[in-house]
Specification:
about 230 residues; Rossmann fold; six-stranded mixed sheet; four-stranded antiparallel sheet; 6 helices; about 30% helix; globular; binds adenosine-5'-triphosphate; binds magnesium ion; hydrolase; Sulfate ABC superfamily ATP binding cassette transporter, ABC protein; MacB-like_ATP-bd; ATP binding; ABC_transporter-like_ATP-bd
Length: about 230
């Protein structure tokens, strides 16, 4: 469904060249959970941003189904980001002056979605928090709103950069459970960047990065199911 072929990404800082990704190739399938691990600076966010059309590779090709994402012009790339990709970030990025419901509703509107924002919030267990503002919610609740917001775009690709990075371990597991359920119950491919090696066992597919290169990549035939807490 998604294919990275020999992706290089270089950043120019002054007269220095930083090679953030170096000949990175892999495939990601629909309905699977992929986890990307690696030390700080190994290129995880760079990889996710290229997957999501927020950045372009220096060399190599990115394919989404039959579409060559790496060849899209700016307008087409905006369309790809809007229609194909949902993002979840470490610090939620909710709009502080809007309620949970409103934060999800504006994203749903962008895509003329026929489902209601309430439905997505109930899917992440937040039916009781619809009218709370972000500062009236816990970190785990805010992250669930941000997942509901991403889902309301009905993304084919759900990209999560350290979604549990700011959460305690018990709350992290709850988020992990939601992301695993999404990957199993839909056609959506979920890609999650994490520092936590404990999550590796829950993934269908694991990519380990080191210094901008793939150190190891493998499939879990029987990924562990995240238990409900
Ligand atoms: N916009 C940029 N300009 C210059 N260098 C950059 C830029 N973005 C990233 N880099 C460099 O590219 C390399 C990979 O960065 P990246 O953010 O992808 O790492 P990461 O694996 O996500 O790290 P972390 O775990 O700390 O989030 C790093 O050396 C970083 O300094
Ligand atoms: Mg990062």
């Amino acid at each position: 469904m998604i294919e990275f072929e020999k992706i290089d990404k270089e950043y120019h800082v002054g007269d220095q060249v930083v090679k953030a990704l170096n000949e990175v190739s892999f495939k990601i399938e629909q309905g699977k959970l992929t986890i990307i691990l690696g030390p700080s600076g190994s290129g995880k966010s760079t990889l996710l941003n290229i997957l999501g059309g927020m950045d372009r590779p220096t060399r190599g090709t990115v394919k989404f189904n039959d579409q060559l994402v790496s060849k899209l012009n700016d307008h087409e790339l905006t369309d790809y980001r809007r229609k194909v990709v949902g993002f979840v970030f470490q610090f939620y990025n909710l709009i502080p002056s809007l309620t949970a419901l409103e934060n999800v509703a504006i994203a749903a509107q962008l895509n003329n979605n026929d489902y209601q924002a309430e439905d997505y919030l109930s899917q992440v267990g937040l039916s009781e928090r619809l009218n709370n503002f972000p500062n009236q919610m816990s970190g785990g609740e805010m992250q669930r709103v941000s997942i509901a917001r991403a889902l309301s775009k009905k993304p084919k690709l759900l990209l999560c950069d350290e979604p549990t990075g700011a959460l305690d371990s018990k709350t992290s597991i709850k988020i992990m459970k939601i992301l695993q359920d999404i990957s199993k119950s839909s056609e959506t491919a979920v890609v999650m960047v994490t520092h936590n090696p404990k999550f590796e066992q829950y993934a269908d597919h694991v990519i380990r990065l080191k210094d901008g290169q793939i150190e190891k990549t493998y499939d879990n035939e029987n990924p562990k199911i995240v238990e409900k807490i």
